[in-house]
Amino acid sequence: MGSQDDQLHTPILESMQRSSSTGSTFESSSELEKVLSDLQLPWLRRLRTATWIELKLLFRLAAPAVLVYLINNAMSLSTRVFAGHLGNLELAAASLGNSGIQLFAYGLMLGMGSAVETLCGQAYGANRSEMLGIYLQRATVVLTATGFPLTVIYVFAKPILLLLGESSAVASAAAVFVYGLIPQIFAYAVNFPIQKFLQAQSIVAPSAIISAATLAVHLLLSWVAVYKLGMGLIGASLVLSVSWWIIVGAQFVYILISDRCKYTWTGFSLQAFSGLWEFLKLSAASAVMLCLETWYFQMLVLIAGLLKNPELALDSLSICMAISGLLFMVSVGFNAAASVRVSNELGAGNPKSAAFSVVLVNLVSFIIAVIEAIVVLSLRHVISYAFTGGATVAKEVSDLCPFLAVTLILNGVQPVLSGVAVGCGWQAFVAYVNVGCYYVVGIPLGCVLGFKFDLGAKGIWSGMIGGTVMQTLILVWVTYRTDWSKEVEKAKQRLDKWEDKEDQPLLKD
After folding, report:
1. pLDDT at 383
2. Residue 200, CB half-sphere, CA atoms under 13 Å: how many?
3. What is the rounded CA–CA span in Å between residue 244 and residue 252?
4. Angstrom distances, CA of residue 162 to CA of 46, 99, 115, 175, 453
5. What are the boundaries of the region Disordered (predicted)?
6. What is the pLDDT of residue 387?
């Protein structure tokens, strides 16, 4: 047998093996494109068949993704609960450290991690499997480097909080809590690229199982550290950091031993250190896009503290934001699913499937959001009693529930469209849209309604809803006007740009 023939046939055999190892995802994706392109089928039957195929693909991604985000939130929430049992000062410190400083790092790292989501998703759809591992490593390098300046912010947490007007006692306690979260920064730097690497391959269930198991370990370790060892706030935050590193380690072990990652992870490579500047620019655009969205409604609470009766406004808004934040995890799960589905289809060269996926994921998420809004409105008079027994706060929450319902409905569409943007690589464009709609229109309009027209929290929230509506309408219009065949070509050009020449196979289609 000739060695030249062996060399020529090896890439073809490897490509066939890779396609087989990806399971039913590629098969279903290809089947979806065939169904949508088959004009001989009756329109209704074509729609019904395509919807069934897409729903199976969608919920296989979205359900575990929602679970992962809910569990990760539950770990952070349980840490605050343990801190709260130490005393009111400790609860305030943990809440401030978590909402003020840790949330900033979380949003920044998660946003930067979405860059690898675009590239990995499109590379996987194009069956350029070997590049996923390179993208994963590049993202980890960039995010780890970002972790060092973030560490400086954590170290100087106390003077920063004092500068923001917090009391010396709360700032000191919050700083202690934040010090224990420093290892968590670098866990984020590794976890988010790994998470996006797995999601791009429609591998989501293992992450959900790992997160659920880690939550149980986290609760046990927190109980031991806080109550048995008496480590206080620093113990609670250190356990949270350890728990995140457990998730990172378990997911990486899965990558190493799983046959599903056999061709996407081929080992460590020095190529991870090439093209870092371009990767940093894409990551920065992703981070700005997500952070502007994350911080937007945090500003609502901050501005409400300047109202005439700030305590009542803050209590009622914090309850509404807690409910919104919990249900927002559902939208985040669909955001991840939309990003994966669109990037995979674009990478695979399936424009009809990409467009159909966009429509269906938005429709499903919107229906779920409407159901959430109806439930909230039906429970508007009693929902606050899950958080506090105050009748005054309950009445204020009841008055704010219509605004909460509108926000929930918008959250059924807006985050999903952001996921579509990540799948297409539109992060920089969406960042500009967010700045204009949120910070040039939404917040100023809210301040005018809240303070000038004396509408209080309702006015502030109304203005910010206006900004979200404007942003959503712009994204809907841009998505509607998208030429998906051109997006397929752009995805191919992006992959050709990012793929290292020495990594390309010997034979190409």
Report:
1. 87
2. 37
3. 12
4. 62, 16, 35, 10, 32
5. 1-26
6. 67
Which residues form the domain of 230? 49-503
> Is 34 inside any structural domain?
no
pTM of the predicted model, to two decimals? 0.80
d(CA 254, CA 248): 10
Q: How far apart are CA 292 and CA 284, in angstroms?
A: 12
Q: Which amino acid is at 30?
A: S
Q: Residue ranges of the alpha helices (H) in 262-309?
A: 276-304
- What is the distance between the alpha carbons of residues 304 and 281, in angstroms, rounded to a whole number? 35
Whether residue 42 lies inside any domain: the answer is: no
Q: Residue 15: pLDDT band by 50, 70, 90 thresholds?
A: very low
Which residues touch 257 (CB under 8 Å, ≥6 apart)?
none
Residues 78, 83, 84, 90, CA torsion sign:
negative
Burial call 129-167: b when 16+ CB within 10 Å, e when fewer: bbbbbbbbbbbbbbbeebbeebeeebeebbebbeeeebe
pLDDT at 113 over 80: no
**Residue 332 counted as domain residue:** yes
9-13, 121-125, 427-431, 444-448: range with highest mean pLDDT: 444-448
Q: State how many domains the chain has.
A: 1
Structure tokens at 135: 């993208």
| Residues comprising the chain, all counted | 509
Residue 473, token pair as written in the block: 């309408």
Q: Is residue 236 part of a domain?
A: yes
Res 498: pLDDT = 63
Closest by Cα among 396, 400, 392 to 376:
400
| Whether residue 97 has pLDDT greater than 90 | no
